[in-house]
Write a structure and sequence with these properties.
Layout (H helix, E strand, L loop, with lengths): L4 E5 L3 H18 L2 E6 L4 H9 L3 E4 L9 H18 L3 E5 L1 H13 L4 E6 L16 H14 L4 E4 L2 H9 L8 E3 L21 E8 L6 H13 L4 E8 L9 H9 L4 E4 L5 H6 L2 E4 L8 H8 L3 E5 L14 E4 L4 H13 L2 H17 L2 H11 L4
Parallel strand pairs: 1-2, 1-4, 2-3, 4-5, 5-6, 6-7, 8-9, 8-11, 9-10, 11-12, 12-13
């Protein structure tokens, strides 16, 4: 088994250790050399990545926006990086790495090129008006350019795979689907439910409209009006995104006693351990990592019947599915756990069983390693 040099290109430094750390370690255990190329490296994140056994490169990537000069500069930088490092494998994830990283790797004749589509983002969700209608069209053309040279395009759900192949953005014969990034079942372990006077809900994620945070606040308003004993905790952060919720809005929801905001947290496990039910009313996902983490910790789930979300939940077994954008249905789903508290433990156990069967990170990483073999 020949050792390889794997270049991993990403756009969000905070996600590397949490979402790709196990994969990096699996590569290194195989004997591979791993270089992580990511923008905005802090000393702490750089140290954490190096502790995994990988080296790091800080790249000039602007995660949001479509500045053609900045993106051209990124493309040239990545091409030169590939020529200098001469990796055997380039793996990219998130939008700009999957576009410009794949183009650069093709120009540099990298032997194996993998693009991991972890979610479709703002351009593929919601209704667009005015100039914003151009964004999906432009992004599709860029995806087509980037993914055209990938040896393998890996999706995290069948819906995204079908959409990309139908639009001609990825070739059917080069496309594969895995069950998300997987979950480390030794790090996220079952936790007993706590005796608490109110039902405790938890949301984890970026504070975006597309994550369903507005519907969650509205659902809490409906329940509070009826005097339902429920608290909703929010762990997350504000982001530069067209659908970003402003801090002032979160402050208003907090003042109205609809949401309890905890900000960004390095370790979400204590918050999952304190909740009864995890809630993610997202409009679309790849495969939501926070849902998998909560399932592994034996929690019931409420999420939407949307791509990426729906496959994590068997409706009525380990959680409940609600329509996208429907605050009343979301409130009714939450009410179900008030009316029948035994569902919390029952569905939590089913979540754990589902996590073990479908989402073990070790199984998924073996699939990813196999895809890194020379095509």
């Amino acid at each position: 088994m020949k050792a390889r040099h794997v270049l991993l290109i990403a756009s969000y430094p905070d996600s590397v250790v949490g979402f790709r750390g196990d994969l990096i370690q699996a590569c290194i255990a195989r004997g591979d050399q791993v270089t992580v190329a990511v923008p905005d490296l802090t000393t702490q994140i750089k140290t954490e990545i190096q502790q995994l056994g990988a080296t790091t490169v800080d790249i000039p990537l602007q995660r949001t926006g479509m500045n053609p000069i900045a993106d051209l500069r990124l493309l040239i930088y990545l091409f030169r990086l590939c020529r200098r490092l001469r990796p055997d494998v380039v793996m990219t994830y998130t939008i700009k790495p999957c576009i410009y990283g794949q183009i650069a790797a093709r120009w540099a004749a990298v032997p194996t090129r993998l693009a991991l589509i972890t979610g479709l983002g703002y351009a593929f969700t919601g209704k667009k008006r005015g100039l914003s209608t151009l964004l999906p069209w432009v992004l599709r053309q860029l995806y087509r350019l980037g993914l055209n040279g990938a040896h393998r395009v890996v999706f995290q759900n069948q819906d995204d795979c079908l959409l990309f192949t139908q639009l001609g953005l990825a070739k059917r014969q080069n496309s594969s689907v895995v069950n998300g990034s997987g979950i480390n079942l030794t790090r996220f372990t079952p936790q007993a439910l706590q005796e608490q006077p109110n039902l405790q809900l938890l949301f984890i994620g970026r504070i975006l409209k597309d994550k369903g945070i507005i519907e969650l606040a509205n659902a809490m308003h409906l329940l509070k009006q009826k005097g339902v004993a429920v608290d909703c905790h929010v762990v997350g952060w504000f982001d530069q995104n067209p659908t970003a919720i402003q801090p002032e809005q979160m402050a208003q929801w907090t003042e109205q006693d609809l949401l309890i905001f905890h900000g960004k947290q390095a370790d979400v496990r204590p918050f999952i351990a304190q909740c009864d039910v995890f809630v993610l009313p997202s409009y679309r996902e790849g495969t939501p990592r926070t849902v998998l983490e909560s399932m592994a910790m034996q929690r019931a789930i409420i999420t939407t019947d949307a791509p990426g979300c729906r496959q994590t939940v068997e409706d009525g077994v380990n959680g409940l599915l609600v329509p996208v954008g429907d605050s009343e249905a979301l409130a009714n789903a939450i009410q179900s756990f008030i009316d029948d508290p035994l569902l919390i433990e029952k569905m939590g156990k089913a979540s754990l069983a589902r996590a073990k069967t479908l989402y073990d990170v070790n199984v998924i990483n073996q699939q990813m390693l196999a895809m890194m073999e020379k095509p």
